[in-house]
Amino acid sequence: MKKxxxxxxxxxxxxxxKKVEDIKGFYYNLIAYCLVIPFLAFVNYKTSWGYQWxxxxxxxxxxxxxxxxxxxxxxxxxxxxxxxxxxIQEFIEEEEEKMRWG
Length: 102
Description:
By secondary structure, this protein is an all-alpha fold. The chain has one domain. The protein has helices at residues 6-48, 55-74, 81-101. The longest helix has 43 residues, at 6-48. It is elongated.
C-alpha cells in the first residue's frame, strides 16, 4: 500500500478548508443581502416611495452576489481552479526535473 506524503495531505486539507471558507463567506453574503435589501425597501417606502432608489443597491449587490456564487461554485473556466491546479503541478514537476539534473 502506497503511503501518501504528509505534505500532500496538508495541501489537500488546506484546499478543502479554503473551499469551506469560500462557501461560508458566500452564504454570509447571501443572508446579509436577504436581510438588508428588504430593510432598504422598507426605509424607501416610509421616506420617499415616489423615487424607488432601493432598486440600485439591490441590483448592484445582486450582481456582486452572482459573481461571488460563480467564483465559489463554478469557477472552472480558463483561469479557474483546474487551470490553477495544472499550473501548480507543472511548476512542481519543473522543480523536480531541475533537482534531478542540476
